[in-house]
């Protein structure tokens, strides 16, 4: 019955070499507290293999971190009646709120287009835009603009040559998660490649949650908007009254 | 020290927020305006989503107006009856404004409407104020002149439903104050302001109220209108950020106290010119943003977030 155990190996994308990823994260969950200032994320791991290291090809590693995907409206301004206003817009079906890619060598040198299409690794592949309104002929420009805008805000990051690979076995990289994170499951993926083809991959997720006061305020604003609105007014009334009372005390 | 704003979902420097609240408080202490017309554009500049900036700006105005109106109540310079009529119009206007705001927001045109309203109103009020204070400054140099005639009979005095407003010493129809209240309410909801800078000239020139009760009465009704606006924004689109409001309010009340200390030492005409220049400056900046081709033509906003 031994062959049954070996059967899955036949379906590996790169037969002949059996390499697997064993990976770890510096943290499995991130708490957004009131003074949340971004977070450092260390992703490390090792390549597990039963045979000697193959010498005929180079091993490469790509690591991605991906925030929750959501639909995004991208709008374009043009001059109308002398002022610049939004005149056309495209709704992009899904785009990650955050996406970072770290590689061991320049991305184009280690990843084939087919593999990129299949696994959705580069930023461009992560954005899905199906239907643009018929009057917009250049919908690709809107997708490009979204990538440009988010790269500018450091929400989309490509860090080439930042995965450190030791003795073709140990690897590690650092991600700076920005302060403007939104809540959700952040998927991390690790890809091992040889000759621009995938050898093995591994996926885990990090739970990013608002906690404490942030959690309480956010939940209250969504679940009890009436109470939240009243609370906002009471806060303002009390602060205004307290200020005038304190002012009177100081003057007397 | 960074602070993460739970509703806006952005992280901002807490001292920057204290500072902004403080500067606006300082100005409101100096000039007797709520400061909403400044806080909202300033929040745009530091990257707070416009929807959150407008709703939270209104909340800050509640706090600064309460603090100011308490002082006016003590001096008996609030016409409560006139305030109530203005308020009735204001509540209707605010509801109308929220409705328009939500429609425009869905169509992606809210930013330009808010900006345009700011440019038009700030430009108008700033220019009027500048001209007026220049004239008074020149007149005070030229020596005393004949006082302006009070109680002129304008078209507003010929409308029905006349009511006696004792504190203001007026006997006029309730329709003009209702209309003024309505207009200010709409603007409050769309622009996130109390509307004092529109209300005050309207009360003096349109309703003919004596200047000493104008500020207090305007502040009195602004509390209710901005309070209602805050509540409606919170209830219909969850866009009030209490964390942001807290920092702005604390900065604001401290600034307001320092401002009112300074105000006692400066001359009224000089203050008015300064305020007029400030208003025109904000107006110019917003106008240039609309007129000059932006370096980035595209903007992206996630659906379901602000």
Assembly type: heterodimer
Q: Identify low-pLDDT runs of chain A.
A: none
End-to-end distance of chain B: 24 Å
Number of structural units classed as domains of chain B: 1
What's this, in brief?
The complex is a heterodimer of chains A (252) and B (306). With 252 residues, chain A is an alpha+beta fold.
Structure report:
- The complex is a heterodimer of chains A (252) and B (306).
- By secondary structure, chain A is an alpha+beta fold.
- Chain A is 29% helix and 40% strand.
- Chain A is built from seven helices and twelve strands.
- A six-stranded mixed β-sheet of chain A has the order 2-12-11-4-7-8. In chain A, strands 1-3-10-9 form a four-stranded antiparallel β-sheet, with no helix packed on it.
- In chain A, helix 6 packs across helix 7.
- The mean pLDDT of chain A is 87.
- Chain B has 306 residues and is mainly alpha-helical.
- Chain B has helices at residues 14-31, 36-45, 50-74, 80-107, 110-142, 175-191, 196-206, 211-237, 242-263, 268-291, and strands spanning 2-5, 10-13, 162-165, 170-173, 298-302.
- Chain B has a two-stranded antiparallel sheet.
- In chain B, helix 2 runs antiparallel to helix 3 and helix 3 (50-74) crosses helix 9.
- The chains are: A alpha+beta (252), B mainly alpha (306).
- At the A-B interface, strand 5, strand 6, helix 5, helix 6 and helix 7 of A face strand 1, helix 3, helix 5, helix 8 and helix 9 of B.
SSE blueprint:
The complex is a heterodimer of chains A (252) and B (306).
Chain A: H1 2-6, E1 19-25, E2 29-32, E3 39-49, E4 59-66, E5 69-80, E6 83-96, E7 99-103, H2 107-110, H3 113-119, H4 123-126, H5 139-152, E8 156-159, E9 164-166, E10 170-177, E11 184-194, E12 197-210, H6 212-223, H7 225-251
Parallel strand pairs in A: 2-12, 7-8
Antiparallel strand pairs in A: 1-3, 3-10, 4-7, 4-11, 5-6, 9-10, 11-12
Helix pairs in contact in A: 6-7
Chain B: E1 2-5, E2 10-13, H1 14-31, H2 36-45, H3 50-74, H4 80-107, H5 110-142, E3 162-165, E4 170-173, H6 175-191, H7 196-206, H8 211-237, H9 242-263, H10 268-291, E5 298-302
Antiparallel strand pairs in B: 1-2, 3-4
């Amino acid at each position: 019955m031994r062959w049954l155990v070996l059967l899955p190996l036949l379906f590996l994308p790169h037969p002949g070499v059996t390499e697997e990823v064993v990976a770890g994260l510096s943290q499995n969950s991130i708490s957004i507290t009131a003074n949340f200032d971004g977070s450092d994320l260390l992703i490390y791991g090792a390549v597990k293999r039963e045979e000697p290291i193959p010498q005929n090809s180079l091993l490469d590693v790509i690591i991605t971190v991906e925030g929750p995907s959501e639909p995004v409206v991208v709008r374009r301004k043009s001059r109308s009646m002398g002022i610049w206003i939004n005149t056309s817009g495209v709704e992009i079906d899904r785009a990650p709120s955050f996406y970072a890619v770290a590689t061991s060598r320049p991305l184009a040198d280690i990843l084939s287009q087919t593999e990129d299409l299949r696994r959705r690794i580069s930023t461009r592949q992560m954005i899905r835009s199906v239907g643009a309104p018929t009057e917009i002929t250049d919908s690709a420009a809107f997708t490009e603009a979204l990538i440009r805008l988010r790269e500018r805000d450091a929400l989309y990051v490509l860090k080439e040559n930042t995965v450190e690979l030791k003795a073709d076995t140990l690897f590690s990289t650092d991600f700076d998660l920005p302060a403007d994170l939104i809540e959700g499951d952040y998927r991390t993926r690790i890809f091992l490649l040889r000759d621009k083809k995938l050898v093995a991959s591994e996926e885990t997720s990090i739970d990013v949650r608002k906690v404490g006061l942030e959690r309480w305020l956010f939940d209250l604003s969504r679940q009890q908007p009436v109470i939240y609105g009243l609370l906002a007014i009471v806060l303002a009334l009390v602060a205004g009254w307290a200020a005038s009372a304190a002012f009177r005390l100081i003057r007397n | 020290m960074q602070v993460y704003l739970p509703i806006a979902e952005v992280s901002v420097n807490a001292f920057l927020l204290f500072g902004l609240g403080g500067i606006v408080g300082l100005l409101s202490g100096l000039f007797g305006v709520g400061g909403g017309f400044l806080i909202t554009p300033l929040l745009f500049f530091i990257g707070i989503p416009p929807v959150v900036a407008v709703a939270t700006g209104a909340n800050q105005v509640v706090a600064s107006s309460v603090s100011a109106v308490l002082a006016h109540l003590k001096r008996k310079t609030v016409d409560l009856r006139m305030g109530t009529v203005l308020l009735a119009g204001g509540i209707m206007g605010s509801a109308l404004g929220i409705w328009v705001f939500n429609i425009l927001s869905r169509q992606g045109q809210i930013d330009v409407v808010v900006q345009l309203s700011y440019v038009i109103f700030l430009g108008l009020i700033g220019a009027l104020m500048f001209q007026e204070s220049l004239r008074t400054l020149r007149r005070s140099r030229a020596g005393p002149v004949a006082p302006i005639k009070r109680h002129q009979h304008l078209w507003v005095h010929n409308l029905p439903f006349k009511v006696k407003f004792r504190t203001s010493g007026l006997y006029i129809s309730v329709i003009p104050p209702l209309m003024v209240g309505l207009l200010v309410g709409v603007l409050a909801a769309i622009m996130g302001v109390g509307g004092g800078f529109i209300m005050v000239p309207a009360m003096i020139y349109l309703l003919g109220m004596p200047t000493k009760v104008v500020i207090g009465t305007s502040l009195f009704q602004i509390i209710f209108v901005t309070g209602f606006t805050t509540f409606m924004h919170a209830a219909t689109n969850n866009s009030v950020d209490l964390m942001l409001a807290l920092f702005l309010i604390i900065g604001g009340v401290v600034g307001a106290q320092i401002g009112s200390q300074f105000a006692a030492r400066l001359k009224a005409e000089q203050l008015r010119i300064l305020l007029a220049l400030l208003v025109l400056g904000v107006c110019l900046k917003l106008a240039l943003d609309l007129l000059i081709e932006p370096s980035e033509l595209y903007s992206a906003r996630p659906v379901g977030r602000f």
